[in-house]
Amino acid sequence: MQKIKTGDKVVVMSGKDKGREGTVERVFPKKGTAFVPGINIYKKHIKKQMAADNKGGVYEIPRPIALSKLMVVDPKTNKPTRVGFKIEGGKKLRFSKKSGVILDQK
Fold this sequence. Notes:
The chain has strands spanning 9-12, 21-23, 26-28, 33-35, 41-46, 57-62, 65-66, 70-73, 80-81, 83-88, 91-96. With 106 residues, the protein is mostly beta strands. The two termini are 16 Å apart.
């Protein structure tokens, strides 16, 4: 089981986007990365023939960010928190180490 899942609100702890928040759209566990819209945006030069609209230029494209740079935001305190696991009723649940709130409320 992973500590960061799709739909989690996260904050970037290091790098060029340090301090920015977003919601995880997709997680790539084997690569150890996650896709967060608006975070880790890069510019790419695209030729006219390669572009979908037949217009070349400089496009901003989002790229996945390493999971090690992200921390889950505690729903109670709205601050970054570490994630722990506990078993309740035969299910393994994630909880916030800061406030103890269970994160898997689905």
